[in-house]
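Sample entry as discussed:
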Amino acid sequence: MARALPRPHRDDVRIAVGGLLGGVLLWALGLHPRMPSAPVVLWAAPWAPLVPLTVTAVCEPLRRTRPRLGLLVGTLALAVDTVTVGNIVTVVLYTDLMYAAVLYGTASSARRIPWITGLLTVLGGVVPATLWRDPAALLIGVGVGVVALAPAATGWVVRNHRDAADAARLRAEQTALLAEMDRTQAVTAERARMARELHDMVANHLSAIAIHSTAALSLDDPQTSRDALSVIRENSVAGLAEMRRLIGILRDSSGDREPAVTPGLDGLATLVEGARANGLDVRLDADHGRVPAPVGPAAYRIVQESLTNALKHAAPGPVRVTLRRTDGALQVEVVSPHRPGDGPRAPGSGSGLTGMRERAALLGGGFTAGPEAGLWTVRATLPLNGTEAETGADAHIHTGTGTEGDSP
């Protein structure tokens, strides 16, 4: 089934109608570029110039949809016009067909037509001048250049500018798209980071509050209730302080400040003491030395979340926290008693393991957590990447139940 021609642009139709009416007006007024007695006029009929004029005008609606066909038919019409008294509008319409063929045609046509018209311009001037030995014959080449080469070169220049503008617009759209993708990724990463911070800072205190409030409600013992309320108050105050610091970070418009609320490995001793105050039997054995800035906070948060999980889920017994520096990485291990089937002593969402895994992954490390021979073991490997922190000193801590060594 034959495919119908595309609908012509209405501006092209207007050009065709206007050119045809203008050419007919010049013909009616008897304005022609050649006299009927000129040697080149082989078709001297008075109405002869109207034939190529009409054909050229009919080709104008094809200037965008079928530019090569319009140029081919227009060239034949122009050839017929040269053997009549002629019509200047026919020539003008032909120059527009030449321009449109370069501007709207295929890329190969846009490259070839200027070269072909340039060659015809040179031959049209040199060959007649050589054969006739008359310098005036060079004007033939000038005429070919004006009618063919000039509009073709103009179309080529305009097309190059249009293509450059399209390419620049495409690059701008791609840049905007990449910027939007980066912004979306940055927002997602920031939300995940703040979610980890919020969970790690608050979950420990809220878990202790939930467990001790349950104990206070369950036991009819004034001293036990008083001790539980003391722990609840301490955790409430600490959680509120950390929440305020986090809100301060969220309100910081600079956007380049890393959470100052995130302590490093020098806060492990305080963290362990807090866990003991909440009822855990924690033993800390740390020999990590100086570590890069991103590694210390990540290790601290992993230990903090592991102790929170132990407070909520672990069976009675000692919890062992070990930090070792081996083979360019910091090894973090938290082992707590595990008894399958025991329910948690405080509610949880399960996002703690996800947060610990994300922290290790952000540093290019590994993370595992699960039961092993009656124990729940959390292991994290945090690469040091050969970068030492600017501050801090070598640390070694070894504490048993109720005994604490030197602070890191």
Summary: The longest strand covers residues 318-326. The chain has two domains: 10-173, 264-408.
